[in-house]
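FIELD: query
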Amino acid sequence: MVDRTSILHAARNGMPVVVTTHSLPSETEIELEQILAVFLAELGQEGLYDHLSYCLRELTGNAKKANTKRVYFAEKGLSLTDAAQYEQGMKTFKMDTVTDIARYLTEQERQNLYIRVGFLIRDHTFYLSVRNSASITARELTRVYDRIARSRAFDSMEEAFDEVLDDTEGAGLGITIMILMLRKMGLTEKAFDLSQDGSETVVSLTVPMEAVKLSQVTQIADEVVQAVDSLPPFPEILRELTRLLADPEVSMTKLAEQLAKDPALTSDLIKFINSARWGRRPHITSLDEAVRDVGILGLQELIYPYGAHKILAPYLKGQAHLQTDAARASAYSVELARLVKLDRRTEALVQIGGLLSNLGQIILSYLRPAQSQRILDFCRDKEFSVDLFESLTQAINPSAVAGRIAEKWGFPDDLVELLKFQNQPWSAQLKLQPAAAVVHLAWSLVSVERELLHYAQISPALTASLKLSDELTAVHAKLQSAYHPSS
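FIELD: result
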């Protein structure tokens, strides 16, 4: 753990904080991100954490890879500056080093091939530098700046994935995505610099806070708009049921009459309610039991995810994990709401929000399965949440798609707002920010379980806003213990 007091002192007094490592273990990565969080908090720019933590991981990972490359080429007796030998070495570099990385890292330490990360605040400008003790070659420098130049032509992350995929270098796409992310922050590629300083390669980011302007991703591609607009309307029988349930004095006789119009729907709805309760209590078998168990308010709100998943059933074929993840995120949202003592109505809202939060991802994965898989693979390699990654780049925002679907189906305004801003809680209305933060944290923990995210990558501002009294790992353990999915 870092000494937050000394880090804060340095941040406030224009003093650099420098961390040196040879192997960049996960513990050091966590410490670096903790230092980043302290510096951004001092600047009042906690909202930049997700953007800059991605950049930090990208730059340090590339520095580590550069040092490994030097050891590998030396062992193979190959020259980094000879074009033919370079191509020969890069054909086997990735596979050979991944399968024997521990030995290569030990050798890097023996040869004192280090990575040195610096943090500094001067004149309300944040400076991040990453040095590694291996001189960059002209070929490597040209390759990186070629990626940067090409990124100017990309309007979206989709274009980058279509045009850039460099398996031999590995960093090509990562650098391009980083430039797109800087653009999302209101900066240009001029904020990025790569140079050689004696025997060191130096990569730096300069972030003048007065120039930062976070933009929200709201774009939805034409094909996605068409897919959303072509979805069937929300079933009228369910609309009528929600209207009846909105009356707290509604009689069971009236509800029974409405549901009697479609007995199959009643059966399906009861199955869905059992599923949404995650098997923690005995299964209900009738509408009377459902009302007693979840209440009129709970039953009313469960209508929305029930109807949504009925309509989207064709889109979920082959994507069962999306439904499973949503159920888990919903359960975690409810438990988190209870832990931070949110009111009953907010607890109900986050339960439904969790179940519906990946509506956009369902549509996007169905329309673009190959691209969705490439994004998933990229995020797993970078250890980054898919939803967060897409919201931080110029990608189609799944949350915006989810909000558009909810609007089409006439869902309540608070639910539409929650779905739109689940990945950007501070952009939601003030009254909905705790609910959006809960759903966002719940999905982040699901991403940890899917090995798309580390705990340290979850924004400290997010957990601080919820005033969680326990460490995040302990909170996660509580949620997992309370979650018992239905069989």
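FIELD: remark
The first strand starts at residue 17 and ends at 21.
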